[in-house]
Amino acid sequence: MPISPTKPAEPGAPTNFIKQIVAADVAAGKNDGRVATRFPPEPNGYLHIGHAKSICLNFGLAAEFGGICHLRFDDTDPAKESTEYVESIMEDVRWLGFDWKDKLFFASDYFEQLYDFAKQLITLGKAYVDHLSADEIREYRGSLTTPGRNSPYRDRSVEENLDLFTRMRAGEFEDGACVLRAKIDMASPNIVMRDPTLYRIKRVSHYRTGDRWCIYPMYDFTHCLSDMIEGITDSICTLEFENNRELYDWVLDTLKTPCHPQQIEFARLNLNYTVLSKRKLIELVEGGIVAGWDDPRMPTISGYRRRGYTPEAIRNFCERIGVARADSTVDISLMEHCLREDLNRRSARVMAVLRPLKVTLINYPEGQTEELEAINNPEDPSMGTRKVPFSREIFIERDDFMEDPPKKFFRLAPGREVRLRYAYFITCVEVVKDPATGEVTELRCTYDPTTRGGDAPDGRKVQGTLHWVSAAHAVPAEVRLYDHLFTKENPDDVVEGRHFTDYVNPKSLEVLRSCRLEPSLAAAAPGSRFQFERLGYFCADYQESRPGQLVFNRSVTLRDTWAKIVKKKEGR
Ligand code: ATP
Ligand code: MG
Predict the structure, then answer these.
(1) Does the active-site annotation cover 349?
(2) Set 42, 341, 393, 544: catalytic member
(3) Contact 515, 479 (CB under 8 A)
(4) Is the CB of 38 under 6 A from ligand 1?
(5) Which residue is closest in CA terms to ligand 1's atom 18?
C-alpha cells in the first residue's frame, strides 16, 4: 500500500467526503438538519490509534454541525468483554478531549427490544430458526461464483418459528443447536445477504446482563437497530462493512422503522511498523511481549498517553491524515512529527545526561558553585528562565567525547575547545582511563572564566555546544528509550511459517539506569513533559516516577524524519 501524502487541511474547506455528505444533508433539511453520530466500540480491548481516527471523525462531525456524538458500547459478544475495557475506553475518549454528555449507551440495554424486533421479523415471514450446523450453513452459503442453497428448515411456519425462537431464549437448546436467520436470498450476489444469522445460542455470562440471556444478537442485526433506537443520522464505519450496508438497510426497511440512519464507510487507519488489530494487541499483552496495554510502545491511546503524547498531537495527526475511501498506510513519522510540533511549542527545556562521563574542570575553584541563567523555552519567552548550578565536576554525554574523532565530529576531543550550554568554553587537556579496560573514565579540562554565558570576548568561535549537569547537584533517574515495536514496515504481512510477533523489535526498549538530570527536575510531577536539550522529548512516567525515584520515558527524538520525507517528495 502506498504511503499517503498528507497535507494539512485548507482552512474553511469541507475537508473530507463525509463532511461534504453531512453538509449537503443538513443544507437539504434531511433529519430536520439534525446531526447525530456515534462511536461504537466493542469493550473487548483498549482503544488504539485507529479508534482515535474514528473518535475524532465522529465527535468532530457532531461538533462541527451542532450535533451530538453518542458513546455506545457494542457489547453483544460476551466472551471477551469486560468492565475494565469499558472504563478504559471512557477514560481514553475523555482524555482525547471529547464529551458524550449524557449520551452513553450499551447495546446490551437493547437486548429486550432487539428480541422483539426479531420476533417481528419472524411474524413478517422474514426470519426462521435453522437447525443446520455451522459447517453446513457455511457449505450451503455457496461462494462468490456459485449461489447458495436454501436450508431445509427455511420454510417453517411463522408459528413454528415463533415457538422455536421462544424456546431458544428459554434455554431449551444446546449451544449451536440452532440459530435465527434472516430470510432474504440465498442466491444474492452479496454473500452477506444469503440468509445471515441474527441470533446464536451462547451460554456465556455477560459482564452486564449476567446469565439473563443465553441467546445473543449478531452485529449486523444489533448495529442498525441500535443506531435507529438512538436516532443516529450518520452511522460511520470502516470499509470492511461496505457489503454489510445492504443488510443494514434491509433490516430497517423490512421492519419499517421510523428512523433510518445512513451508513457511510471510510478507510481505516493503518500505520507502518504497527499492528492495529485488537486480536494482535491482546496477544502482545497476554504473551508478555509488552508490559501491558499502556506499555509506551503500544499503539493504544493509553500507551501513547504514557509515552508522553498529548491529546492535541493525536487530534492534529487525525486531522492531517484526512478521511478517504481508499485504504492506505500512514507513515509513523507523521505521528512523531505532530507530537514534536506540539511539544516544541510548550515544553520546558532542561538538561539531562543519559550516559554520564565525568569532567573535572581543573582550574575551577574547589567548593565553588555558581548559578547560571538558562532559557526555559526559546519558542515561548513567557515561560521565563531558571537557574542551573555549575561547579568543578560536571557530567557530559559519553558520546559527546571521542578520543580519536573523525572529520565531522564537532564535539569534545583531546585538545579541543567546546561550549557548555549557558556556561563556559572548556578545553580537554587530559583523558583518564581505567588501566584495566582502557575505558575513558574522566576528562580533565580547563575552563575559560571570560566566556561565562557562552561567548568569548575575543570573538573566537567553537563548533560544538554540549549539554551538561553539575555532578554534585544532579539528580539520578532512570530513562527508558523507545523505538518502533516492529522491525518490519508491515508486520501484518507475515511470511509462511512465521508469526507477527517474530517481527518484534528486540531493541524497542532500552533502559538507562544511571542518568543524571539537572536539579530542577527533582520534583517533576508524574506525567510532566520536557525537552531534554539535544536529546528529545521526555515525560515523567505517570505509573512509576516519583520525586526521589524518577523515571522518564522518551516520547520522541528531536530528529524529524517526516520533514525529510516531505522534502524528498517535493524534490527539495
Ligand atoms: P479491531 O479491528 O482493531 O479489532 P474493531 O473494528 O473490531 O477493531 P471496534 O471496537 O468494533 O473495534 O471499533 C470501534 C469503532 O472504531 C468502529 O466504528 C471501527 O470501525 C473503528 N475502527 C476500528 N479500527 C479502526 C482503524 N484502524 N481506523 C479507523 N477506525 C477504526
Ligand atoms: Mg468491530
Answers:
(1) no
(2) 42
(3) yes
(4) no
(5) 237
- In the set 103, 141, 202, 268, the catalytic residue is 268
Confidence of residue 204 (pLDDT cuts 50, 70, 90): very high
CA of 42 to the centre of ligand 2 (A): 6
Measure 422 CA to ligand 1 centroid, in angstroms: 49
Residue 559's pLDDT is what? 87
Neighbouring CB atoms inside 10 A of 465's CB total 18
Separation CA 346–CA 334 (nearest Å): 19
DSSP states along 52-85: HHHHHHHHHHHHHTT-EEEEEE----GGG--HHH
* Ligand 1 site, residue 491, Cβ cutoff 6 A: no
Residue 555 to residue 534: CA distance in whole angstroms: 14
Nearest alpha carbon, ligand 1 atom 9: 41
Instruction: State whether the beta carbon of 238 lies less than 6 angstroms from ligand 1.
Output: yes
Distances (CA, A) of 180 to 201, 256, 328, 530, 535: 9, 20, 37, 57, 60
- Which phi and psi (to 5°) does residue 217 adopt? -75, 150
Helices then strands, each counted (H, E), the chain:
13, 27
Is 569 an annotated catalytic residue?
no
3-class state of residue 414 by DSSP: coil
* Axis crossing angle, helix 158-170 with helix 111-123, rounded to the nearest 10: 160
**Per-residue pLDDT tens over the stretch 99-143:** 999 999 999 999 999 999 999 999 999 999 999 999 999 999 999
- In the residue annotation, 268 being an active-site residue is answered as yes
Give, for ligand 1, the residue of 42, 53, 54 to mutate: max count of ligand atoms closer than 8 Å to Cβ: 54
pLDDT for residue 10 is more than 60:
no
> Closest ligand 1 atom, CA of 42?
10
pLDDT (average), residues 190-215: 98
Q: CB of 269 closer than 6 A to ligand 1?
A: yes
Residues 391 and 372: their CA atoms lie apart, in Å, by 10
Nearest to 429 by CA among 417, 419, 414, 440: 414
> Is the whole-model pTM more than 0.85?
yes
Q: Which residues of 431-448 are buried (b: 16+ CB within 10 A; e: fewer)?
A: eeeeeeeeebeebebbbb
Ligand 1 atom with the shortest distance to the CA of 277: 3
Amino acid at site 243: N
The average pLDDT across 220-227 equals 98
Q: What is the 3-state secondary structure (H, E, C) of 248-279?
A: HHHHHHHCCCCCCCEEEEECCCEECCCCCCHH
Cβ(302)–Cβ(92) under 8 Å?
Answer: yes
Judge contact between 204 and 215, C-beta under 8 A.
no
